[in-house]
Every structure is written in C-alpha cells, then in structure tokens.
Here is the input.
Amino acid sequence: MKNPASASMTISGIRSLECSNCGKLYSHETIQTFATCCNVPLNAIYDLPFRDAQFINTALQTMWRYQPVLPVLNETNIVSLEEGFTPVSQLNKLSMHLGIHEIWLKDDAKNPTGSFKARGLSMGVSKAKELGIKKMVIPTAGNAGGALSAYCAKAEIEATVIMPRHTAETLKEECRMYGANLILLDGLIDTCGKMARSIAAETGAFDMSTMKEPYRLEGKKTLGYEIAEQFNWLLPDIIIYPAGGGTGLIGIWKAFKELLSMNLIKGILPKMVLVQSDQCSPMVHLFQEGKLPDSYAPQSSAAYGLAVPYPFATQMMLTVLRESNGIALTVSEKEMEDGIQQIAKAEGQLLSPEGAATFMAAKKLLQSQFIKEADKVLLVNTGSWYKYR
Here is the structure.
C-alpha cells in the first residue's frame, strides 16, 4: 500500500528501511514488519544533511520537535497526545548519599498514559494511519497495551491488547476505558506474543510486537535526542536503562549515532548500562555468558516491563553494550522495592519498579567501580508508580 503523502508535504528525511544484520533495503512507502531476509528488526535510515540544531522545531514541547529525523511523511497523519520532551532533574540528595558527582533522572512517567510507551505507540499508530492500517494487535506486559489503546482511540483504529492475567488492574482497566478489546492470558509476554501472531494471521490486524515493526523504535529514539538537547549536547558519562524488549536502549543509541553524523554531540558517547530483574534476565545471561543457561526459567516481576523472557532484538541490544563499553546486570525484586522507598524518601519522587532498578544498579556499579565518583550518571524512569497498583 502506497503512502498517501505527497512529496510537497513531506516533513521527514527518511530514505529507506534497512535490515539491522545484512543491510538489505526495504521500502518505507509500504507496510513492513521486520527484515525477513535475516529475521531481525528493521532500521529507518535518513538523509541527515544537518550540521546544526536548526532542524529542531523549538515551538513544539513534544517529541515531534524532531520531525525531520522521524518517519511520518505528512503531519496530518501525526497522532499525538503531547508525548515526549519529559523533564530531566538532578537528584542531589541521592548524589550526596552515594558520593557520585551528579545523578540525574529522565522521567518518562510524565508522558501521556504514564509511561515511555507513549513515544513508540504515538509513532507506530501515526505510521499505521499514514499507511492505511485499520486494525492493530499488541502483546504487552502492561504499559504498551494502554498506550496503544489510547492512540488507536484517537486515530479511530481498532485495537486488540493481549496481556498477562497477573498484570495490575489499573493497566487492564485503562485498555478497556479506551475501547480496546482486552484478552488476558496465563503466562508472560511471550505467550501473549504467540496469540498476537495468530490473531494477526486470522484477522489481518497489524502486529505491533516490540521490534517486529520498524517505527516504535523511531518514537523511542526521541529519548536520545531529548537527552542530548537537555544536556546542551554534552552527554552524561553513564546512562542506566531498564530493558525488557530493549526498544528504548536501542533507540537512545540510534539517536546518539545520528547526532554524531550531524556533528551535534560534544565529547564521547556514554557507557550504556542495561539492568534487568533477576527473575527474568535473558540479556544479562547473553551478555555475560553468550547464551541462555539450560536451567533458564523466567518468572514474572513487579517490574512488568522487564518480564520479557525472549526479546526479539537481542543482537541489537548486545551491539549497543559492546559499542558503548557498557555492561548488563540484575537487581532483585526486593532491591527494586527498597529502591522505590529510598528514592521517594530522599527526593519526593515515586518511580516505577523499572525506574528504581536503575538506581539500585547505580549503587552496585559504584561498589564495583564501574561508576566513578566523578561521573555524571543518568537514570531513566520508564513509568509511573501509580499504574502498578
């Protein structure tokens, strides 16, 4: 299906989609899923003629301020609830307590629907509208389902959400409130993913599974653009990110590399840290051991977004860690709960379990001397504590 946008109305510098493994090109003007040549995610490739920050539309206080490096061709197709450009704040008390020079927080709980998923789903639904998609289905650990439901409601696209039965009631109810068809299953998100593929095959609904379509990544990469802009193009030394499917981690790094090609970043790129729950830590196993152990038995986590037992984009996440000289580690469920309370009492902010995991990871990395006292460390909070009740 051809994109209806005319060349005269084009606001994007997108050139093509590219296999993240072999580089084979795919058209961005037709509906795409993943790179079928290598069974890996697709990357959006742009013409980046910019040599300064003038391409940023500073009148917009949303992620759409970066339109020339985003894939939507016609701005009439943008489906927005004012997502992105979330605040960055310094955690002075925690910095002093740990003895780290600077700890900062990028708080994506301030997004519509209360999580960073708003970025990817705003982009994914906008492209679906542009490409004429009328029905969408998504497997979710929680927050992505609510975000898809909200954006599909605004776009008048039919949404089906498949969610683990043990997910918090708040996350279930918001899908229903937005008018989505909610299906609950026993198990984790991989079980939900199997049903999503079945529904897509049977009904023609487009499958929005993490990294199995090319545009949620482009929404998430705006995190990286915002971080660079908010830090005046001089990036933190270390960024700690709670990764399940890994779209945000990969997206931040993609943004930094695009900014490098535009000569906008000063200094060196940050070391990227991937943190997972010890209940479900496939990427930590793959990073440390090169494979999943024979005894691998993933379980649910209070951090719903980290309970992704078999992520699709494993090689892309490992590439980020390798290129950034980063590291992967786990925290326990108790450590996450303790972290929520420590941050709340010190800074007056209630983070999601995933966000608290980044702080507890910072404490461990300081002890192991991966983090030095002089470092500037950025934590990413991906969701609101209030949604996990």
